Amino acid sequence: MAKTGLFSSIDSREDALKTVRDASLGFLFLAGLQAVIGVALAPALLVDAMVLGSLGLWLKTSNSRAAAVLLLIVAVLEAVVTVLNKMKVTHSGGTNIFLGVLMVIVAVRAVEATFKLNDRTTPQAGSAPSPARRVITGR
Q1: Phi and psi (nearest 5°) for 137?
Q2: Which of 24, 38, 106, 111 could form a disulfide with 46 if both were Cys (CB 3.0 to 4.6 A apart)?
Q3: CA-CA distance, 137 to 129, in Å (whole number)?
Q4: How many domains does the chain fold into?
Q5: Residues 101-139: b if buried by 16+ CB within 10 A, e if exposed
Q6: Distance CA 59, CA 81 (A)
Q7: Residue 43 maps to a domain
């Protein structure tokens, strides 16, 4: 059975658009979750929520490579902080390593999808690959 959703292969422009949409919605959901937790328990999370929300919205509206790369950088930094918190080296932020790793994976997929969106060799869904062009020179 083929994988579906965010972890399926990106073979066409439509697959890339779906992956970008799913990744951006995931980051927007995470931003909302962090905002709720920030208001209720840890106000420092509000900054993370604003950053993730802004980048997730930018990614969703523009399919931007820059937004995807910045989300990857933020995800890696948050994953590092999460590991440091789990090791009790720091005490700012969460300790859910699974969520940190998942953020990095989703951000990597967003980067892959945005680069494939801008790659002219990525075929449209349902279209056959274009045959090699034959050049006819002179008669």
Answers
A1: -105, 125
A2: 38
A3: 24
A4: 1
A5: eebbebbbbbbbbbebbeeeebeeeeeeeeeeeeeeeee
A6: 24
A7: yes
Average pLDDT rounded to a whole number, residues 27-39: 94
User: Which single residue is written with the structure tokens 């999370």?
Assistant: 45
pLDDT confidence of residue 133: 47
How much is the pLDDT for 90?
Answer: 84
Q: Is residue 122 part of a domain?
A: no
End-to-end CA distance of the chain: 52
Q: Is residue 137 part of a domain?
A: no
In a domain, 139, yes or no: no
Instruction: Write the pLDDT tens digit of every residue in 53-108.
Output: 999 999 999 999 999 999 999 999 999 999 999 998 988 777 889 999 999 999 99
User: Domain range holding 63?
Assistant: 12-116
